[in-house]
Amino acid sequence: MNPSFNVDATLPYALVTGGSKGIGYAIAVSLARRHYNLILVARDYSALSAAKENLEATYPVCVEIMSYDLGREESAGEISQWCIDRDIKIKMLCNAVGLGGEKDVLSLPLNSLRHMVNLNIDSCMAMTLLLLPLLEKNAPSYILNVSSLAGFAPIPSKNIYSATKAAVMYFSYALRFQLAKKNISVSCLAPGPVFTTPSIELVTKKKMGWFGMQMAVSPGEVGEIAVRKTLEKQLIIVPGMLAKISAVIIRTLPKRWMVSIYSALG
Amino acid sequence: MKKALAVLIALFVIGQVYARIDEQFVPGDSLELANHPFSVKDSLPYALVAGGSKGIGYAIAEALASRHYNLILIARGYDSLVAAKNKLEALYPIHVEILSYDLSKEESAREIAGWCTARNIRLKILCNVAGLGGEKDYLTLSLDSLRYMVNLNLESCMAMSLLLLPLLEKNAPSYILNVASMAAFAPIPSKNMYSATKAAVLYFSYSLRFQLKEKKISVSCLAPGPVFTKPSIKETTKKSLGWFGMQMAVPPKKVGEKAVKKTLKKKMIIVPGTLSNICSTVIRVLPNRWAAAIYSGLGD
């Protein structure tokens, strides 16, 4: 364990899965700025260490890092046990880990698709269920699940990604009602394009052109809005004005139309 | 909110009138091939029904049999598979193959697809009916049961579709029928994971339909309201939806018949029963948050 653990141990904790990079890291930064101690979970140990160093150098918080592949069944159990053993004062759980790509069904092998389902749905469901006792103990507390604009309507080329993100969104809606009485607020982040890797920028430019580039929101801004709105107990969080307008349109149009539109875009 | 309720009630009254008309349902009757020589059976196309030994799956199998499709039925229980086979082969002039597999297991889909490919089965229709649901799931069931539900409801459907695609493509024009539920149209708090996995199946079907259009494989998705395939479903429906739920229920046989008929007509979303149809339209138009709030009020 981190030697500086006791320094800020009175601060509340937030656990961020997929917190070493991308949106997860941006969420971690916004939480650190608000003086939450952090537990970051990700696969890549060196990325985790780098994130820890950056965060601890900038903010007066301590950062625990745990290297786990959340696509594996046993991960959630081991992580939650670690937290329960130490009676961590968890106030917020952010399920930011996820996998997506330009194409999936008909392009990726079945094993990759199963991994996507495990990572996007199962891990979110398992982490939430297993950490619920700690969240309940430290209520009022917060759960933030990361879905996507793709969760609002099916995207043919991103078939399973879109399906799993819809499942995460349904899960968040339902869970919010289930946990309302326990003083645990559930939020769901549904961002449009966020350029966390150069390939996402390329794909967005190719498929959606100027409009897509305008809709994009920087990771830092997404993280900040996500954390702020989560603490304000908002259910669906869509960062960026243009993305918000698009989301309203996507949700209002019949799914069949949306699929046709997406299909035409490529 | 009040406006929405007023609209709901108005639609409900209209639905009641139509439901009466809809009840004059005639089941498919086609035993005329029964006396044909055995070889005729061998030339019939095949349909594979996952979860075909009981409930909606069996009803779909029967509707396919009445249209002279040979069948491959998959389910966990061997005894109920044998019973289904005996019944169907006695009633209809078809072959029924049975394979006992737990579709939640990763290797199942691969082994089933291997079996079909090795025999070069003339597969025309794939029906992914296997699924699991209950009155309550998240916060009531164990994590293992919830994972089982995700595997069975979503992954098995995805795996079977992908692995049987080569055979379906070879025998095009062909059909895929995935079974979702009305629960897929909006989140239901008490049936959290059931509703989420069924939404994923619905999204998967929408997308797949577009992906397979050029290959002449039509994808449909069945989204039934309450179907009393077990006494417990009847009790739960009566408890949480009352008289309205009982009116909305459609018998399994009719669901199977509608599902097959509309699948062959290449319809995308199939909701059997007029009242269910009206309800599903309302649910799909309402914001998810309202629908979840209404469900939450009904459930607790």
Task: Explain the overall architecture.
- The complex is a heterodimer of chains A (266) and B (300).
- Chain A is α/β, with parallel strands linked by helices and 266 residues long.
- Chain A is 53% helix and 14% strand.
- Chain A is built from 9 helices and 7 strands.
- Chain A has helices spanning 22-33, 45-58, 73-85, 110-137, 159-179, 198-215, 219-231, 241-252, 255-265, and strands spanning 13-17, 37-42, 63-67, 90-95, 141-146, 184-189, 236-237.
- In chain A, helix 4 (110-137) links the parallel strand 4 (90-95) and strand 5 (141-146).
- Chain B is α/β, with parallel strands linked by helices and 300 residues long.
- Chain B contains 11 helices and 7 strands.
- Chain B has a 7-stranded parallel sheet with strand order 3-2-1-4-5-6-7, with helices on both faces.
- In chain B, helix 7 (192-212) links the parallel strand 5 (174-179) and strand 6.
- In chain B, helix 3 (55-65) crosses helix 9.
- Classes of the chains: A alpha/beta (266), B alpha/beta (300).
- The interface between A and B is large, with 45 and 44 residues.
Task: Please outline what is shown here.
The complex is a heterodimer of chains A (266) and B (300). In chain A, 53% of the residues lie in helices and 14% in strands.
Largest sheet of chain A: 7 strands, parallel
Number of strands of chain A: 7
Mean pLDDT of chain B: 88
Unreliable stretches of chain B (pLDDT < 50, length at least 5) are 19-35
The value of Rg of chain B in angstroms is: 19 Å
List low-pLDDT spans of chain A.
1-6
The overall pLDDT average of chain A reads 93
Q: What strand line-up does the widest sheet of chain B have?
A: 3-2-1-4-5-6-7
User: What is the number of E strands of chain B?
Assistant: 7
Summarize the main sheet of chain B: 7 strands, parallel
The most extensive interface, with participating residues per chain, is:
A-B, 45 and 44 residues
Please provide the ordered H/E string of secondary-structure elements of chain B.
HHEHEHEHEHEHEHHEHH
Estimate what percentage of residues of chain B fall within beta strands: 5-15%
Instruction: List the strand order in the largest sheet of chain A.
Output: 3-2-1-4-5-6-7
Helix count of chain B equals: 11
Counting DSSP H or I runs of 4 or more residues, the number of helices of chain A is 9
**Into which percent range does the helicity of residues of chain A fall?**
40-55%
Distance between the termini of chain B: 20 Å
